[in-house]
Every structure is written in structure tokens, then in C-alpha cells.
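Appendix C reproduces, verbatim, an entry submitted by the partner laboratory led by Prof. M.T., so that reviewers can inspect both the input and the predicted structure.
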Amino acid sequence: MTWYSTGSFSDAFRKTLEIDVKLWVILIGVFLVLTISTIIRNIKPRYVKYMRDTFNNETWIWKWTKKKDGSYAIDKLAPLCSKDHTLMFGGSYYNYHMYICPQCGQKYDTKDLIKGGVLGMIKNNVFKNYSVYLD
């Protein structure tokens, strides 16, 4: 006689499914799963703390913005005044991009390629230091 002809396996399997579980145990389990998934979704990568660097003797600052797909993008990239370290405001004039210090009036002219170069250097540093490739 084999084990499956006696029905002992099916009886044992059915008995393992007939566990008495209190409602409060189920509710705590659901609460823990939701809490842990929320915490995991809100964990930011280490590189988003990298928000300031100096390139070609110019200090640049930026913020990181979370995109819909969950990745992060550099946002609000701007230089600081080399004299008083004030955030410089930008505006487009002809084919140049001019940054002006609101405190001392210093002007910093740069082509958009320079700003793109700074973005490239930031992305390169993120890849080099955190092994993360940014689009």
C-alpha cells in the first residue's frame, strides 16, 4: 500500500491549512507590510546628499527632484558668487546665459554648453562615487 492511497498526506495537508488565526494577527500583519513598503519607497539614495561642488573655480549648487519613475534628476542648478557666496540669479540674454549676484552685482557669463558641462561633471561624479548612472 502506498502513502497516497491511505489519504494520510491529504489529511495532513488539510490540517495544516486549518490553522486558527485571530483577526488581530492578520491586521497586524497587514499593517506591518504596508508600513515596511512605505518606508522602503521613501528611502532616498545616498547621492541625493551631493548638492554642491566646485568646477573650474566656480561653486555650483543644485537640488534633486524625484521623477515619476522613482529616479532622481538634477534641478535648479546655479552658481554661487565667488566674492560673497550668494546664489546668483540667471536670465537669458541673446545667446549667452548670464548669472548676476543680487548682493554685489557681479556678473558671470556662460554659454548653455558650460551649464551642460557642469551637469555632465555632476553626473560623472555621481557615477564615480556612488556607481549610479543618471540619464
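The mean pLDDT is 79. Additional entries are available on request from the coordinating office.
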